[in-house]
Every structure is written in C-alpha cells, then in structure tokens.
C-alpha cells in the first residue's frame, strides 16, 4: 500500500526539516513548501493526502492558501491542519470557518498532532466511498 | 478657542437663582447660550438630545435631591463637565461631588461674575485634559497589549524549533541515545515546557487586563473536572514525592462553568501547591457544599507546605506577585498564575481566597455557581409577574454519521449552537447551556414561550437556518422535536419563584429522561460496535 503523503508548509526551513524527519519516522511521504504561492503549486503537483499549514507565510498567507484550496474543485477535499504561532483566540475560528480541519498553536504536542493527522487521513479514506445524498 | 464654553445647560428650579446665573454671565461678557430647565428629568431629556459644553447643576430639584442628582447627570452625560451650584448649608455635599467626578462647585449667592466665568472655563479645560489623558492611557494600554501579543508570537517560533529538535533527539529519531543523554534531553524539554507555559501566561494576563479573557459556561460536573485536573498533575506530584488526593462530596449538583477554564485554574493551584510542599507532604483537592451558601460549590486545594505570611495574603492574587522566600527562586515563574486564576474565577461570578497558617500549609478556595435552571428560566418564562401561558421544550439532535465524526465536527457543533441562539427570541426563549462538549453532547434544548402552532413555524425556521449555516446534511442528521411543558395551574399560596422552580423541575425531568435514554442507547451502540 502507498504511504499517505503530507504537504508541510512553513516559512521556517529548520522547522520544516524537523517535521519532515518526525513525519517520515511515522511512515508518511513528505512534500514541502515555504511560502503561500509554492504551497498551492505543490498541492496541485504532489496531490497530498493532507496539508500541514502555517499561517504567517510570505507570498500569500495561510488564509489565502486556505481560500485557494477551498475554491479549487481538485484540492477542496484535502484536509488542512493549521500549525501556527498565532493566538488561537483570534485565529482558530477564522481558520476553521475558512475550511481548516483543526488548529494547533506552536509549539504543539507531537502526539496530539499525530493523532489528529491520523484521524483526518482516516476520514479522507472513508469519504471516497460514495455517500447517499 | 476650543476650551471656551458655548452652550450651557442650567438645571435649576429656583427662578431667582437661575436669573442670577444669567446676570453673572452677562456681567462676565461671556458669549454663551444658556438653556435652563427646572427638573432633573427635563435636564436628562435635554442631555439625551444634545450635549452642552458645560452643565450647571442645582442639587435640590423637585424630582431629585442630593448625591443622586449629580450621579444621574454624570451617568447621562459622561465627558461633559459639571459645576454644582450648592446652597450655603450643603457645601460638604458639594465637596463630595467634586471627589466623585464633578469638576467644581459654586456656593449660591457667594460668587462673582469673574468666579463663575473662571469656574466654567477651568471645568471645561480640566475635562478636556482628562479626556486626552484617558485617550493616551488607552493608547498606551493598547500599545502594550499589542507589543506583548507580538512578543509572545515571536518567542513561539524559535521555541517551536527547539521543541521539535529536542524531541526528535529524545525520541531516538536521529539515532540511538545513551541513558545519560536521554536524561539531559528530558531536562531541556522540561525547561522548554516551562518557557512555553510562561509565554501562555503572559498572553492570558494581557487578555485579562484588556478584558478579552472569555469563558463559555456550560452545565458540568465539577467532580469530573477535579479528577481531570488531578490526573494531569499526578506525574508532577510523584516526581516530587508529594501525595495528591481528591475529596469529593457526592451530593454536589452540576455547576455552570467553562470546563477548560476551571481545569486551568485547578492546574495552576495544584502546581503551586506541589511547588511549595516538601517531599512526603500532601496536596488535597476538594469540592464541597456549604450549608449557609446553597447556590455555590466550594473547590479547594490544600497543601501541607510552609504556608503564607499574613501580610502576603492580600497581595498574592495581584499581577506579578512573587513569593520573596520561594525555595527554588530560579524557577519562580512570572507571577501571573494566581492573577489569571482570580480573573477567570471572577468571570464565573465566583470568589477566590486563601487561608493559611505559616508552617502548617495553605488552602486556596474558589467558588462556582451551581447550575440552576430556575434562575436561567426566571427572566424568560415570566412576564409582568406571571408565568407565561404556553411553554414548549424543543429538542434538537445533531448526529454525526461517522465515528469519529468526519471533517470539522467541532465547528459544525458550534455553528449549530450559534444559529440556534440567533433563531430564538432572547426575551422569551432560552437555549439551555449544552450538557457537554462537541463529541459528547449532541443534543441541544430550548425552552420556548410559544403555543404549539407557532412552535411548528419556529422549528421549521431553525431547521432552515441550521441547514443554511452548516453542511449538516453532508455530515449527519438533524432531528427536531417539540414537546409541550405541562404546568398545572399555580395554587394560591405559590409564589412566582416557586412556580418557576416547579417549571424548572419539570424541564429537568424531561431532559433527564431523554438524556438517560440517549446514554443507554449509546452504550448499546458501543457494545454492538465492539462485538467480536
């Protein structure tokens, strides 16, 4: 079976590298992007199963990325988990309304983050079976 | 000039005194317009329409006397300078008025044109200064808050990096780790977590100061929260060889509180208690009722530590307070924990205090209001001192069609609740606080004052609005049912409060029956799912 692919988007390359190491250890394939524009491009090219998204990004912040993803038929179904240093009180509801599946404030607990990643990947799997409308 | 009074509102019922004011103003050659009214009510009505540059106020009016007079004027026209016209015999009252926000006073029959002109001019100038000061203070406060919020954001970024790499090493993901190294890494992680907690506290305290701290009260079992809080601190207690125990009064009813916030307060207090208790000491967390205060639950954290000096008790909840004799002074924190606790408890309309015997230990106690359906229902189901005639219970069940729910169920849940709150009339319908959090309580209840025919229209509207606001159709099912609340007529002796209590008991009974069936059903579902 193919490994699930996660697109990690963060403008801090050091953090991207650490997340890549950790997620690889948990048997995920990793693609990365460090700004908003290349995040969309990577999402289109790599077909990730899940996106881990920072909010404060150059070339289109996280909310713009969320908006673009939602508006694309091809990408709207990909679950997005926001991982940002920003205050949840001002940003969590906004991110969730914009289509994010979960919001984590940095530094996040790794076990919790991994568990939410697993749940969301499981949901994607089950959504592929046709639903009665 | 800006600070010159142009319009004066004179509130004075004695025509002689009023004329004297006008005369003095003419003498002082001030080009002002004077509008004179004889009653406070007329004065307040004028103020509601237009604000003058200054108010001259007599304190003995036909419809109001004394301190009440200036209080109501200040309340109606905050920011407009007031000069009190006082009689010879009540100068003491005038001085009190000046202490409470009035700008100046003049004793009737004892002021010249010059006096009057100067008093008005200074009053206007001082008021303008106060306004500038207030604006500056607000700007400074806003600046400080923005700065702190920016700082805590910027600190998080490198902290996250440290946290990630240390845990990579500690978890062995970058190669094998020797036992000693593992130990060192654990110490680094502990310090990272402390730093993280400090940044969080900094932001919380900033929020508390600027009034942005929020609580979302629900109907919760305090015993569960105590057990959760204690479970989260058990490891820290064991590491210091401090016993951590729970004492719960079994009779405690549900409380009306924000579960996350209560746990935050508990953890803060338990953490403090452990910190100030030596090895082999004990910390006990209790929740109990006090007979003299039946609408409140008392939650306390008692330690056998070294106690608190009497003079420190008053300051201990203040922002930035630090124990001068803290044992591990290098790790004393920011001094914000108990301040945040106090603010959170205050937002729950509770109290917080400490009792302590130096050398014997301390007890920190806070109170939470007991969840009382009757007091929530009172303003809604009564009208003109009588119970409203038609009451129905609307039950709204939103059920996710997958376990665990697909996508963002939490958000859907909150949207349902928000939409529901928008669909009802707040003066005659009540959306009851949810009986838990998303994922555990999927049923919402509304007590509505409406006849069954209109309830039908109401439920249709609720359904339409929720379907429009959420993607509930794709994620689950929405069931709405209404049941009339059968209230037998009041007896002669029964007070309104007793009637409301009776309705609350009936509603509680109806809800318990439904929720009981649901949890029984959930257990059956669970058993079915786990059949081997």
Description:
The complex is a heterodimer of chains A (133) and B (532). The radius of gyration of chain A is 14 Å and the shape is globular. Chain A is built from 5 helices and 5 strands. Chain A is of the alpha/beta class. In chain A, 47% of the residues lie in helices and 17% in strands. In chain A, α2 runs parallel beside α3 (62-71). Chain B folds into 3 domains: 7-134, Rossmann fold (3-Layer(aba) Sandwich); 218-369, Histidine kinase-like ATPase, C-terminal domain (Heat Shock Protein 90); 373-529, Alpha-Beta Plaits (2-Layer Sandwich). A 5-stranded parallel beta sheet of chain B has the order 2-1-3-6-7, with helices on both faces. In chain B, strands 9-11-12-14-13 form a 5-stranded mixed beta sheet. In chain B, α5 packs antiparallel against α6 (179-209), α8 packs antiparallel against α10 (337-347) and α12 (409-423) runs antiparallel to α13 (452-469). Chain B is globular and about 95 Å long. Chain B starts with 6 loop residues before the first strand and ends with a helix. The model of chain B is unreliable at 528-532 (pLDDT under 50). The chains are: A alpha/beta (133), B alpha/beta (532).
Task: Give the tags.
heterodimer; A: about 130 residues; alpha/beta; Rossmann fold; five-stranded parallel β-sheet; 5 helices; about 15% strand; B: about 525 residues; Heat Shock Protein 90; Alpha-Beta Plaits; 3 domains; 15 helices; 20 strands
In short:
Chain A has 133 residues and is α/β, with parallel strands linked by helices. Chain A has one domain: Rossmann fold (3-Layer(aba) Sandwich), CATH 3.40.50. Chain A contains 5 helices and 5 strands.
CATH class of chain A: Alpha Beta
Helix content of chain A: 40-55%
Order of helices and strands of chain A: EHEHEHEHEH
Shape descriptor of chain B: globular
CATH topology of chain A: Rossmann fold
Mean pLDDT across all amino acids of chain A? 87
Q: Name the CATH architecture of chain A.
A: 3-Layer(aba) Sandwich
Q: Mind telling me the C-alpha Rg of chain B?
A: 31 Å
Q: How many extended strands of chain B?
A: 20
Enumerate how many helices of chain B there are, as a single number. Answer: 15
Strand order of the largest sheet of chain A: 2-1-3-4-5
**Into which percent range does the helicity of residues of chain B fall?**
40-55%
